[in-house]
Specification:
Length: 520
């Protein structure tokens, strides 16, 4: 990459990051404003990733498929300036239904020069439980409103029809519409920045320079793959046992050949009647993240890298679910896929990859009604521990690998929910032992200040935890329980739904990361 190309890539990355920061400043829901559960990126008119924010890889990896689905339904040459397009369809490039993508074409010189996109976790899009993440869903129809690619706005604003649709589907429509407005504003902001760059370079000059950036990204991955052995390596992982359902196992064969990386997931389990399946965007996110890790921080982060990636995904499987599979709890499946990818990649490039991360994240949705009848609803993400590395211990309480969310402060939760965050602490001793121990998980205790608070809990690693590396130890598994006001205790499974009344406490404990090297 030439100095001129690097300068342009950095400017474009900066615009994507500006979109991300705009979302976090102007969104309504705490899971975005405090937890950063959103992602922003710029795409070429041909649907290739041009630049992306420092955001959640799980979401960033979904955007290429989403852009492909939107532009297939609405070709770029039919778009008008100020148009907005929206979708959340997991089987059309998306992730799960709460993640709504918004796309805006950017014009200069009378033609589209780029596509500004964002993906944001919305608080409620309908379904059988508030928060649209029902742990007991068996098919997608129970999970909420499913939106195919649709025209959602003109002049950079949502149409009345789009607004009416959201109001009819969501339990907290003002929150959802506020966050969608934040996405539209982020798109308008990116458009202004792109137009300034195009003014400097000229429309044709800008488009030619963009093509050069993608070629440079492709050349970078070809060069790095050439340093790896032209061979095959395997990896595997999976989720906790699912009572009443089949296994959820990930099987991977990773092959380097002819300047390409081929990830073959043949042998992974068939999809199950539980919301733990993931769609095709999950494996893409996992392998894209692993490739970026392999390339290092100085590599151009654009779609040129993806040109050298091939995926084989078995149909109707836990790694590539087909309708009507339930998918709302797909995060931990994608984390298991990532673990398998890093295992295999570590065999091909064993010079610096750490032990396994916790491989989990709690997603907890609280909902109910205040004394005056108005609804409340908020989502909380609880991280775990990072794996120990060849030269350092793992970090505690951090969102790892394909996750990049932040812990939500007590003040943000208590401002919108009738709960008190009674404890928020490091779960000491939960990381795996070793020369470089795994990072500890987190313990959080929520006390109910009102009756009838519904809680949907999505967790993982209650039974199955990752092994350590190079003789390191495994972490402690996760756990969750309700301590009732009368001091009785109810141990909870990884995916559960409970109701809290005044004085009840919900305690969640996340898993730590695995240890690296035998303890001396």
């Amino acid at each position: 990459m030439t100095p001129q190309q690097r300068n342009l890539q950095l400017r474009l990355d900066g615009l994507a990051q500006t979109m991300q920061e705009s979302l976090m400043r102007t969104s309504v829901s705490p899971v975005v404003r405090e937890g950063a559960d959103c992602a922003s990126a710029l795409f070429t008119t041909g649907g290739e990733l041009l630049a992306m924010s420092n955001a959640i890889p799980l979401l960033l990896g979904a955007l290429p498929g989403i852009v492909t689905a939107v532009t297939a339904a609405f070709p770029v040459d039919t778009m008008a300036e100020g148009d907005l397009f929206m979708t959340n369809d997991p089987f059309g490039g998306g992730t799960h239904l709460p993640d709504i993508a918004l796309l805006m074409p950017v014009f200069h010189g009378g033609r589209v020069i780029a596509l500004a996109t964002s993906l944001l976790h919305h608080q409620d899009i309908g379904g059988m439980r508030a928060g649209s993440v029902p742990p007991d869903a068996t098919e997608i129809y129970q999970e909420g409103l499913r939106l195919p690619p649709m025209h959602a706005g003109t002049n950079g604003r949502l149409t009345d029809a789009t607004t009416a649709l959201i109001r009819a589907a969501s339990r907290v429509p003002d929150v959802v519409l506020g966050d969608l407005d934040a996405q539209a504003a982020a798109g308008r902001q990116a458009a202004r920045g792109l137009q300034r760059i195009a003014c400097e370079m000229g429309t044709v000059g800008f488009l030619e320079a963009v093509a050069g950036l993608l070629d440079a990204g492709e050349a970078t991955v070809v060069s790095r793959l050439a340093t790896l052995p032209a061979t095959q390596a395997t990896g595997e992982d999976g989720l906790d046992p699912n009572p009443g359902h089949g296994p959820a196992e990930v099987r991977l064969s990773l092959t380097v050949a002819d300047g390409r990386l081929h990830a073959d997931f043949t042998g992974s389990s068939p999809q199950v009647k539980a919301p733990i399946n993931c769609v095709a965007s999950g494996p893409l996110s996992a392998v894209f993240y692993a490739l970026l890790t392999l390339l290092g921080p100085d590599a151009p982060r654009n779609g040129g890298i993806l040109r050298r990636l091939d995926l084989t995904l078995p149909q109707a499987s836990v790694v590539n679910a087909a309708p009507p599979a339930a998918v709302n709890a797909r995060t931990n499946m994608v984390r298991s896929i990532t673990s398998a990818v890093l295992q295999a990649l570590g065999k091909l490039a064993p010079d610096g990859l750490p032990a396994a991360n916790c491989g989990m994240a709690y997603v907890i949705a609280f909902s109910g009604r205040n004394g005056d009848g108005t609804p409340f609803l908020a989502t909380e993400i609880v991280a775990g521990g990072a794996g120990g590395g060849p030269d350092r211990p793992g970090a505690p309480g951090i969102s790892t690998d394909v996750g990049n969310a932040r812990n939500t402060p007590a003040e943000a939760l208590e401002a919108v929910l009738p709960i008190r965050l009674a404890r928020a602490e490091r779960r000491r001793g939960s990381g795996g032992a070793g020369r470089f121990p795994g990072g500890d998980g987190i313990r959080r205790v929520y006390e109910a200040l009102a009756d009838g608070i519904s809680v949907s809990i999505r967790g993982e690693r209650f039974a199955r935890v990752p092994e350590g590396a190079q003789g390191g130890g495994a972490p402690k598994p996760a756990a969750a329980r309700v301590i009732r006001a009368d001091a009785s205790v109810e141990e909870l499974p990884a995916r559960s739904a409970v109701v809290l009344n005044t004085g009840d406490r919900l305690e969640v404990e996340s898993a730590g990361g695995a240890g690296y090297g035998a303890a001396g």
